Amino acid sequence: MVKRFRYPEERAALERAFARTETAGDEVERVVERIIRDVARQGDAALVRYAAKFDGVKLSTAELRVEPAVCKRAWENLPRELARAFELAARRIEAFHRRQLRKGYVVRSKGMTLEQRVRPLARVGVYVPGGRAVYPSTLLMNAVPAQVAGVGEIVVVTPPVREAPERFTPFAVAHLLGLSEHVYQVGGAQAIAALAFGTDTIPRVDKVVGPGNAYVAAAKRMLYGRIDIDSVAGESEVLIIADTSARPDFLAADLLAQAEHTGGETVVLVGIGEDFDFDAVERELRLQLAAAPRRQQARRSLTRRGFFVRVRTREEAVEVAEMKAPEHLEIMARRPEQLAEKISNVGAIFLGAYTPEAVGDYIAGPNHVLPTGGTARFFSPLGVDAFLKTSNVLRYEPEQLERDAPHVIAMAEAEGLFAHAESVRVRLVKRSK
């Protein structure tokens, strides 16, 4: 069921297996291009038409906006335990991200003041997937850091809800976070286009965050530049480093937890030493898989993108992790902190047997929006910085301009930009008169 490798003997084959990615395809690109064009030209009319075509829901233009009362009823209808979980998650996410806030600074010297200002984005859109899978945690993880940053307005979009909107959990979370004035039931590429261009109903935003299917990802990629985006997220992934101290049932459970999303996830178990028992883990996988409600998706992920990698040493385990640059890294081995210190290319690290990746998905506080597909080599988790921008402010007094003028003129003329040089020289001439 799971492909097996030895490292470093099969390094090249393992690198090829890790590197395999699936692109959206030409047909997806063509469909998304047409959707973007239609929404840009027709606005709400295109959104209503696509809701009927893709979601099977007939909406009027007025029904694109979800009434705040619907969100309030969704909150009131939540089971109390789930409501408490959402409240706790929101508090912890806010507390963790508040430490990321940064201020601008001013540098003053004789005749010169230099400043960097930090300001929040004015308006941000959060895409929350819907349909067969509903992810209220997506709204928590994307919206709370934006609120901490001070974003002026957060616009929530999610595919149309066919039945019982008063029980739709993302609407409940929108109420909890105070976002229910700006919630719209529009999904897919058309939602991203609406946020990028604006319609009579949906306001144009500066940035769009949140995961989605291939059409959503393609729309974000195509519209980047008109709007900012968080990233073009790929399928989720976990890499677990384990030694003989790890329990096979824990390892199997965490591999399955990642594999159950869509059937395209990457799950990797790196076992240290010749005595590491991969067979015991595979037996547990089969046992737990038989009872898993989403066993079809999990089995597909394990078969297509499941890897067992045997290494001889802890150092080689680190090498495999650095090579994969995983979204999630679990370490169930002796002295996990020592291993973690050596690994740089990773979205989030979960240390020890009692830190399953699921706590990071939901309740711990750090963000679960993480780089995928090896991009942890250069991308970071979503955070407050994603919703801030900086501007530089300069002020020169006449005396300082006079001191710096020869340097500016020399550099400008060296680049052939003589008007730049003259813009300084003219001020010196005027000052000398």
Description of the molecule:
This protein is an alpha/beta fold. The protein contains 17 helices and 14 strands. It has helices spanning 11-19, 26-42, 44-55, 68-76, 80-98, 136-149, 169-176, 188-197, 214-223, 248-259, 278-291, 295-305, 314-324, 336-341, 357-362, 398-414, 418-432; strands at 3-6, 105-109, 112-120, 123-127, 153-158, 183-185, 207-209, 228-229, 237-242, 266-272, 306-311, 328-332, 348-351, 388-396. The strands form 3 sheets. The protein has a 6-stranded parallel sheet, with helices on both faces. It comes from Sumerlaea chitinivorans. Pathway: Amino-acid biosynthesis; L-histidine biosynthesis; L-histidine from 5-phospho-alpha-D-ribose 1-diphosphate: step 9/9.
How far is the N terminus from the C terminus?
86 Å
Low-confidence stretches: none
Largest sheet geometry: 6 strands, parallel
CATH architecture of the largest domain: 3-Layer(aba) Sandwich
The overall pLDDT, averaged over residues, is 96
Overall geometry: globular
The helix-and-strand class reads alpha/beta
Adjacency order of strands in the biggest sheet: 1-11-10-9-12-13
Q: By CATH's scheme, which homologous superfamily of the largest domain applies?
A: Nitrogenase molybdenum iron protein domain
Number of strands: 14
Which value, in Å, is the CA radius of gyration? Answer: 26 Å
In oligomeric terms, what are we looking at? single chain
How helical, in percent, are the residues?
Answer: 40-55%
Strand share of the residues?
Answer: 15-25%
Q: Can you tell me the CATH class of the largest domain?
A: Alpha Beta
Overall number of structural domains: 3
Looking at CATH, which topology of the largest domain would you report?
Rossmann fold
Number of helices: 17
